[in-house]
Design brief:
The chain is α/β, with parallel strands linked by helices. It has helices at residues 38-46, 73-81, 92-105, 118-129, 154-161, 169-183, 192-205, 209-220, 225-228, 249-258, 276-294, and strands at residues 2-5, 8-15, 22-26, 50-54, 111-116, 134-140, 236-241, 263-267. Helix 1 (38-46) runs parallel beside helix 11 (276-294), helix 2 (73-81) runs parallel beside helix 8 (209-220) and helix 6 crosses helix 7.
């Protein structure tokens, strides 16, 4: 379905009974709602929840803000390294307001928030600034954004900044698959031929590289989020992989440290992806957390 929020159009999918407690899933950088593992969605529904996932602004079938132009990310990264202020076309706080508006459009008063990577950052901001709308927070493979935390290694950084050989779907999928191999969980096997097919379906659904760059700039310019985390009062679970090469585990530990009462769970051998084994582990950790809030 398509809903209006914050003056934009958002593609939304809702699974499970409409009168069940809602779980809002917010995806990471450049990823579409179809990237959520079906095993996680079905586990949440089986546990008695209504699961709502959506395409963030600038990806998938939601509004593409092409009139804002494409940021020159290399220049912005250089500016951030020397401490210069960055001006993004929109912020992660704007994207948190998007999420609140999606709940409004679906007539959902409060929801459990689950976010991965950039989606965790958006969910953190929503929990901090809209506590009346938040039942709980689960932040996965994300970070507090605090200064001094380690970042991705040089190989991952180079791969993230490179572009496919062309915009032909096959070249896009080949490039994306090579990036995900660098992010893969060493302890949880991924069926890469099947994942290639999944990536192809996503590219055919929507492909908007400038939008991903605008999202990336929103992440890089979000330098004050760590100062907000002390305002989060809802039950919080922070999950992170010990082998995450994109967002090192220190970012997850720091997030939990800054939120009163937060519980931290490290998954041994998990990287920055969600093959079936990781998805099942995420369900095993997050569902008891959500149920404990209801009880």
């Amino acid at each position: 379905m398509n809903v209006t929020s914050n003056g934009l159009q958002f593609e939304v999918e809702s699974t499970g009974p409409e009168d069940a407690p809602a779980v809002l899933l917010t995806m990471g950088l450049g990823m579409q709602l179809v990237a959520w593992p079906e095993v996680l969605i079905q586990a949440l529904v089986k546990a008695g929840f209504r699961v709502v996932c959506y395409d963030n602004r600038d990806v998938g079938l939601s509004s593409h803000l092409d009139h804002l132009g494409q940021p020159q990310m290399l220049w912005h990264f250089l500016k951030s390294r020397v401490g210069l202020a960055l001006k993004a076309p929109y912020s992660l706080q704007d994207m948190a307001v998007d999420a609140i508006g999606i709940l409004d459009a679906l007539d959902i008063r409060r929801a459990h928030l689950i976010g991965v990577s950039m989606g965790g950052m958006i969910s953190q901001r929503m929990a901090a600034t809209a506590p009346a709308r938040t039942l709980s927070l689960t932040s996965i493979m994300s970070s507090s954004g605090a200064p001094g935390l380690p970042g991705p290694g040089s190989e991952v950084t180079r791969a993230m900044m490179q572009r496919p050989r062309s915009g032909v779907p096959q070249d896009v999928v080949d490039h994306t698959l090579e990036v995900f191999k660098l992010l893969a969980s060493p302890a949880f096997p991924q069926d890469f031929p099947a994942y290639r097919q999944h990536l192809m379906a996503g590219v055919q659904r929507s492909y908007n590289p400038p939008g991903v760059m605008r999202q990336m700039l929103a992440v890089v310019s979000d330098t004050s989020r760590h100062e907000l985390l002390a305002r989060i009062t809802c039950p919080t679970l922070v999950i992170h992989g010990t082998a995450d090469p994109l967002v090192p585990i220190e970012g997850g530990r720091d997030t939990a440290r800054r939120i009163a009462g937060a519980r931290f769970e490290a998954i041994e051998g998990m990287g920055h992806d969600w093959p079936p084994g990781v998805a099942r582990r995420l369900a095993d950790l997050s569902i008891p957390h959500l149920l404990s809030v209801l009880s």
